[in-house]
Predict the structure.
Amino acid sequence: MNYSFSTVLMTILTSNLLIAVLVLCFRNRKIMLSLGYKLLILFLTLTAVRFLIPFEFPFSRNVYFPEWLSVIVVLVRHPFISIGKIQISVTSLFGVVWLGGTIYYIYRFYKRKESYRHYVVRYGTNRNRQEPYRSIMEEIGGKKRNSLWVVTAPFFGAPMQYGTLRPYIVLPSTLELSEEELYYVLRHETAHFYHHDAFIKDAIGIIRAVYWWNPLGAVLEKKSDILLEMRVDDKLVRGDAATREAYCNVLNCISEKIQVEEETPVPGAGAAISMAAIKGEDLKYRQKMMVQGKQRKGLSFYLTAAVVIAVYIFSYCFTFEAYYAGEIDAMANVSREGFIAIQKEDGTYDVYFEDSDNAYFLENIDSLEHYINITIRAD
């Protein structure tokens, strides 16, 4: 496997393209219903995997940029300031800004989670040993290991499951629920826990932090919540019309009772998995997804699936690469034997083209596999 500027560039391009396709799916309700939550989760998984594996494999082939685009790549990678052994280029400056923004967003994400946990610990009341909470949780869990705490706390807009290592089901203390409503709420939030949705939400939050400069990342983070809700809905009502009807009635009742999310003065609410997507159009589409059963797959289903899978496979089969040698040959009218590489202490190479009079700096790279008959010299 090879790791280089080109593989990182390919990862950035592919991941953001997949994010764009996912956002388009979420924004078009017809496509979203046609695809179904399972295929959308697969797309989300492919996006995360592509982001986590920025490598070039032995079967990959290079696709070279045209000359004008290659010149741009050389310019942005060319050091315009040297401070001792530190070389500063447009690429390095962008990398510093990108890294700084990512650290800030990850800090803000986990700071929000921590403030939320402190709020629950300080103001929440543990209901695990009280009825009917205890008997309902025992019925839902059965023989499964269940480390969830059921907590009521003031000022929450909707029931939610929070926490990965110390998970809670947090219920609004102001929300009055019948025993049937409480059963379905606890069953819904417990399903989030058993399907590890808190980890999925954390992974989406980290992807959002890494691509903080892409506005589509924020849309993806928000829209993915309803996808997780749809998956839980499907698990709860699958093949059972009576359960589906009762569950939809509970969602409608809670929708009328809860406060508007924007009016909920709770720190870090975005760090939890909430049933808040039970108002307006979100609730309508969740219920439509539950009652529609197996929908006939149309053109949008096959077209979207083909585009996503093709983009993912293409990104590993081919790597975009700047083409340097052609421009130098045209200018200097010499063979490629004039290329030399100076190996740096950090393992990278400064590449030059050397003629009888001068040496022309080209770029700093991690690998020399794309250069032919290149001479390597020590720094």
